[in-house]
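Suppose a colleague, Dr. K., hands you the sequence of a protein chain of 136 amino acids and asks what its three-dimensional shape might be. Before reaching for any lab equipment, you can write down a predicted structure in token form. Begin with the sequence itself:
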Amino acid sequence: SDCASQRNLSQAGRNQAQQTGEKLRAKGYSDARVITSQWCRCKETAQLLALGEPEQLASLNSFFQNWEMKQEATNKTKAWIAKELKTKADGEVILLVTHQVNITALTGHFPRSGEMVVSQQKPNGDLRHVASIDPR
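The predicted structure, expressed as tokens, is then:
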């Protein structure tokens, strides 16, 4: 993907990603599984968290300019989460790096820029917003 055509992280955003990673490691999440959108700012955020090698998941890509993809992307992400939760190790944390529109579609919560959203998957596959962590 061509990062020159995308909105990228500012220096403040890079610092925030690094500090968020430090805070997560300090809380014992040094081995989280990091799954990211394929957009440059998300991939950079995922790298700067320094919690392990990020994996890319296309359904986490923003659909802001392509709203007809909303339901398909949301359903694919929910299905991916359900599958991963069945096989993840006890205590393993899965961290998704994605976009506001995706988070809102998945959880009903409208996050601020840089906000971390903690969610729990319900038996029907929907995600419930449990908590927010503002890294500032």
